[in-house]
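Write out the 3D structure for:
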Amino acid sequence: MSVRGVVTLLLVVVVGGLPAATASAATASAGRRAVLDRIGGGAQPAAVARATAEAPPCGSSTVAGTAADDPPGDGESGRPAEIARVTADLDASCVLRVTVSVLNRPGNDLGATDVIAFFLDTDENAATGAAHLEGADAAVLIAGSDGPDGQPFLTPWSAVKGQFDVDDAVDVAAQGLGFALPVDALRAMPGTAVGIRAVSLVVEGEASYRDVAPDAGTVPLRLPVAYATRAARATSTPGIAGRAVVGSTLRCEPPSWDVAPRALSFQWLRGRTSQVVGLLPAYDPTFADAGTTLRCSVTAVTGAEDELVLSQPAFSAAVRVRGVAPVRLARPRIRGVPRVGATLTCHAGRWRGRETTRYAWLRDGRAVPGARRRVYRTATRDAGHALACRVTAVNRWGRTVVTTRTVRVR
C-alpha cells in the first residue's frame, strides 16, 4: 500500500528542544545507511529546511496514550509476518514510547532479515521533510538479527541531502519492539504536533515484502498531550553589578535556572518594606534611595503562551546606596532692581538632593559682613559695585556651592 495514504497518529506537543548532534563512527554510519536503504528511506527530492528555533525543554507532562490496530492480511503479499498493532504513549517525565506488535514473530522479535521503521513528522509541515512520507522529518529504525534485535536509532531528515542523514543519527532506548525517547530530542516546537506518518515493516528473503500501518481509510487517531510545565527553580543567587551610588547604574544579574526560561521578570526593591522602585534589569539609584538598601528579584517564566508558569522570585543580597552632594538643576539668580535702597532677593535655583540652603552676599567678590540671608537691601556703599549671591546647598553627604551672576548697583 502507498505510504502517502497512511493514517497519521498525532501527538500534540507543547514544548520541545533540539537534539544533540552526535558524530557517528564511519562503520556505524555505514551500517545505519544499509538499514535505511532496506526500508526505502534513501535519497529523495530535497525539501525546505525546517526551522531550528529553540524551545523550552519539557519539564513534565500529562500521562496519555492511544493505539491503532492494523488489519491482518493487509501486507503486500499477504504473508504472515505483519504489523498487528501500533501503540503510543507519553509518560509524566516527557518520554515518548512507540511500540508495535508483529504477528507470527515468536516473542515479538524481528527476524534476521526484518527491518522496522517509525517515520515521524515533528512540525506538521509536509514541506520540511520527506515528501514521499507526508513530511516525515525524523525516523527511528530497528534491524532484526539472529539474536536480540538491533539498537534503535533516531535519524533526522536532511533537506540539503534530500534523505535521512545517518551521519547525525543517535541511539535511542529500546522499548519492546519499539523505542522510548524524550520528546525534547525531536525538536518539536510549542503548539505543534508530532505525527507518526508510518510504521513500515520490511521482510527480506526469497519473497521480500512490506507492511505499513496504520491503514489508509481508517479513522485518524489523535493523542492529545498536555505538558504540565513546572516552574523553574533558581540554582544560584542573583547578583547586583555596579556602584551603589546615587546617579550610577546598577544591573541585576539573573541566576541560573534548572529549566531554561522563556522570559525573565525583574523588580528592584527598596528598604525593609521592599517598596518596588524599578521593573527593568537596570536601575539608577536616586536621592530617595540614598542611605537605604536596594536588592533585585528575578522571576522566570516557563511554559507555552497559553499556559505560562511563574517561578518563585530569586532575591539578590542587599546593597546600601551611598548619596552624593546636592546636584544643581538650575542656576541661582538675583531678582530685583539693582539700585541704592532697593531690595534684592536671591533665588536658590533648582536642586536634587538638597536638604538645607545657605546664602552669602558678595560685593566685588568679597563677602559682605552680616549679609547671610536670602534678602539683601542695598545701601549707598554698594553704589557702583558688583553684587552677587553665593548659594550653598547641603545634605548629609556633602555640599555644593554656586554663585549667581553679578549685578551692578546704580
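The two ends are 112 Å apart (CA to CA).
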